[in-house]
Amino acid sequence: MNTLYRRPAAFALNDPNVVLTEADREASAEIIPLTQEHDIEVSAAPIARVRSRNRFGWATVFWSALGALIALAIGLAITQLVEDLYARSQALGWLGLLLAATAALALCAILMREIRALVRLSAIDELRDRASATIVSDQRTDGLAVARELLHLTRNTPLLARARKVLASHVDDIIDGADMVRLAERGLMAPLDQEAKRLVSAAAKRVSIVTAVSPRALLDMVFVLVTAFGLMRRLAYLYGGRPGTLGLIRLMRLCVAHLTVTGGLAIGDGMAQQILGHGVVAKLSTRLGEGVLNGLLTARLGLAAMEVTRPLPFVALPQPTINDLAADLLRLRAPKTSDDDQ
Amino acid sequence: MNDPISQIIEQALMGARALLEFGSHLVNPTVRLGVTGMSDAGKTVFITALVHGLLHGGRFPVFDAMASGRVSEARLAPQPDDAVPRFDYENHLRALAARRWPESTRRISELRLVIEYQSQRGAMRTLTLDIVDYPGEWLLDLPLLEMNYEQWSAESLLLSRQPPRTALATHWHDHLKALDPLGAEDEQAALTATALFVDYLKSCRDQRYAMSMLPPGHFLMPGELAGSPALTFAPLDVPHHGAAPEGSLWAMMRRRYESYKRIVVKPFFHEHFARLDRQIVLVDVLSAFNAGPEALLDLERALASILACFNSGRKSLFSAMFSPRIDRILFAATKADHLHRSSHDRLEAILRRLTESSLQRAQIAGGTVDVIALAAIRATREATIRDGHGQLPAILGTPVAGEIVGRETFDGQTEVAMFPGDLPDNPEVLFKDLDAFRGLTMASAQDADFRFLRLLPPALQIGQSDERSFPHIRLDRALQFLIGDRLQ
After folding, report:
1. Model pTM?
2. How many CB contacts within 8 angstroms connect chain A with chain B?
């Protein structure tokens, strides 16, 4: 073993080769040799992700080709328009060109923003995957990376100023991977979870009230849709994502997919009582029943959105359930509904 | 011992006590935490640091109840057991403040802590934590309860004839040859034999050899029974089966061995060990590295023997008594601060390997067992050293006077940077054979593959408001594992 391993040795502190690992100089000075399994672990998650996205399909080809055609058509139409304008008057032509250029510029900016938002969202997804992997592997370097990234992600959240400071002070401590992830979750996610729960329950309440009092079914459908998107957007902002329109659509898709997957399971945990309860309420008043049901559905959607937008999995903290929110929803609505019915 | 009626009475008493305690625990929840380990493993330091941290709201980010602010207060309470000495927390703390390591554990002691906390749901609760500190050597006595004198003699002799022990046991072996087990009983012969036997045990424990498997434990830590006949016996070269003639040396030794079990081992067992709820076993793996592969193998044997106490299967008498009690056992490799953090996982892997076979049995039996590398008080800082080939992960600390690395001898004043040697990625390398690595047993301090020096405690101003606890490594994780679930 002598050939493989380094010999013990001692050095005086004034030896120029001795470099202190100061607490505040942290990462740069600290050498943590990456062991092999570590390398594999880190690269494993992104690979799985990329593979799932790289599926080749004729549908993709069709949509891309169609999209390109439409883009060409629009380009042609605009060129045509500008040419027509020039034919009519020089000044109008310039104005048209200017407007077209401005529009193109704005489109570029919007596209950039959307892309950045999407990248950010996928970074959050990846962070969540890595956190889950770290809980299992308990690798210290991974845990540290997750904590650092989380600190970076939430650097603009004013709610967390103190929590960030506390967590940052523990980054240099010797804490194992899984413990570090739990620590980060308890510190940074707890206040956000509270806020998220409040947002979800407020949205659910709004939806159920509007459904109960709105004169037209179409109106409440529009309202539910708008509220759902608004809720999702606010949750994403809360947890550090900045979804644009595309990002929001993607989140909604994930969310609905999530609901269809977990929906079956969820019926066991409380949904049955909710629906039975809804039946009782519906006996009292149809509209009130619809209101409660819509509220509950919004709450479910909100909880799914929480899971999709949260950068860490629920490990150290309990995951909020529909029961937590439903109690809130029914209790606070009671006095108002009695007014409505009279 | 083998008398069925006394067995039944014993079990009935144990049952009655357990029932009584169960009742009182409903009103006043109590956890009895056993802290043990071979001498020099760091039991006293562990308890002192733990109590200090709890009392002063130390920096325990991983200890959930404390980190989330649910623990409102922890305080010392009067020691509950009148027959057991109190753990001398205040003196040990003073020693640490003066940069001395506290005196080591020589006997059992106990300390009671009351933790006031708020449960997750918001109710105010208290948890009484009784910390019981006892030498790990005593655990090695428990297997004696199932052995008779002849079996024990044969086993001890076999062990003492293996290298490197055989060299240490020469004097005793010489004396043994001259003894006639069948001869008339002779107090002087017994005294000499015992003295030589104890000398042999003591030299095995020297840091050059760092042997762990050294029963009977009370020979090394006699306490108030020192010199009494129950502690004056030694193994004899006698056949496995066979009756000792009346009045012979053999008969005398056998009688005393039985008294040892009756007077020393069993009371400890009933009064203390059987009443524990949680147990942490501190293991000084690093000193075995210093000594050599023999010490590591010996440590493995000792740990297997200790684990067998916790979990000696359903069929034996003893398991029936304590199988319902200890439900969490933590094996902790202490002095992790002597290694750079990049090596902690390897240290943990090695301890896991040491306890592996026994761990599997314990996990099947329903108890939760975990293995961590910790330092109750962190005496070092970290650094990197540039050398010709790259960077060495090193630690900074002040070695005690007289320690040697390479060609240097330290004076106990200067702080130095040390690289203690690389732990292997794969623990199996170390257990391959007796030439796996060189330790102090076979080589000089210059040639050893690992050098973990004894270091002075960190210089701290204890009691200052900004320094609320000792620096530590994973003490909070140990706490979370041991009592975290009782503070939900």
Report:
1. 0.81
2. 114
